[in-house]
Design a protein that fits this description.
single chain; 2 domains; 10-stranded parallel β-sheet; EC 3.1.1.11; hydrolase; Pectin_lyase_fold/virulence; cell wall; pectinesterase activity
Length: about 325
């Protein structure tokens, strides 16, 4: 189903000058089975509340002015999920702990920061202190696009669970498996920041017949000043597929590049590619022998937008406009 051509605009402002005071109130006001692009203008502010876009709430756009000034944040973790009184509880564990959860298709966000504010997990006297898995954004929806957004957290920051997603000019930070899941995602011109020792990706493709995977194109990877403490990824699923192309890597990246997650059998099936990358964190001769280079087939928009007669990504880009005067 296509969205109708007319666009509805509603506003959110914590000072009461908008249509609603919270983002969730505005989302709840979108009709069930919505077929009209609904732009929710979010005024600057820190919105401390979990946000849930249900499957029945399609064609929603969240638009801020400056991403640093418009922050959606909450502090759930996989082992401690709390919601303000009256809020919906969307499952448990890592799946349910997202500060923002998107299940409605054809979602767009622009100039928004999505944060999980839980602290870093540390090992203390054989135990664990801190958040562990703490998702800032989970996307379980098809045809979603994010422009100039930030995703802040530590472990499991961005959960690309299912569907096709596009990210452009975004900033994503974390430590352990902080971009993970089994969606089909293209990330262009994004800044990936490794906050501590860990792994950037944990893609979970389970068979060679699945078309899923993560493609990073013309991105920048940075760290906190140390050398060789982060891996590009490890296979959460045996056929995990991740591509880095034309990407700058600073010295934080382990020269081995990739990790087999303690299972040598994963080396036979995982599909980890690097294509024309550069920087001090890239050294082809020192990469694991099972990493690959032939990645041209993943570098076009058709990887996430294969239907040439009904290109969803072009439609999403058509709605990427400044919604504030």
């Amino acid at each position: 189903m296509e969205a109708s051509h007319s666009v509805k605009v509603i506003t959110v402002s914590q000072d009461g000058k908008g249509d609603y005071r919270t983002v969730q109130e505005a989302i709840d006001a979108v009709p069930v089975g919505n077929t009209r692009r609904t732009v929710i203008r979010v005024a600057p502010g820190i919105y401390r509340q979990p946000v849930y876009v249900a499957k029945t709430k399609r064609f929603i756009t969240l638009a801020g002015i400056f991403l640093e000034d418009t922050v959606l944040t909450w502090n759930n973790t996989a082992t401690r999920i709390q919601h303000p009184k009256g809020e919906k509880v969307i499952g448990g564990g890592t799946f349910g702990c997202g500060s923002t959860i998107v299940e409605g298709e054809d979602f767009i966000a622009e100039n928004i920061t999505f944060e999980n504010s839980s602290p870093q997990c540390e090992v203390v006297f054989g135990g664990r202190k801190g958040s562990g898995q703490a998702v800032a954004m989970r996307v379980t929806a098809d045809r979603c696009a994010f422009y100039n957004c930030r995703f802040l957290g530590w472990q499991d920051t961005l959960y690309l669970h299912y569907g096709k997603q596009y990210f452009r000019d975004c900033y994503i930070e974390g430590s352990v498996d902080f971009i993970f899941g089994n969606s089909t995602a293209l990330l262009e011109h994004c800044h990936i920041h490794c906050k501590s020792q860990g792994f950037i990706t944990a893609q979970s493709r389970k068979s060679p017949h699945e078309t899923t995977g993560f493609v990073f194109q013309r991105c920048v990877i940075t760290g906190n000043g140390g050398r060789e403490y982060a891996y590009l990824g490890r296979p959460w699923g045996p056929f995990a597929r991740v591509v880095f192309a034309f990407t700058y890597m600073d010295p934080c990246i382990q020269l081995a590049g990739w990790n087999n997650w303690g299972n040598a059998d994963n080396e036979k099936t995982a599909c980890f590619f690097e294509y024309r990358c550069f920087g001090p964190g890239y050294c082809r001769s020192k990469r694991v022998k099972w990493a690959r280079e032939e990645a041209e087939q993943f570098l076009l928009h058709s990887f996430i937008d294969p239907e040439a007669n009904k290109p969803w990504l072009a439609q999403r880009m058509a709605f990427k406009v400044p919604y504030f005067a």
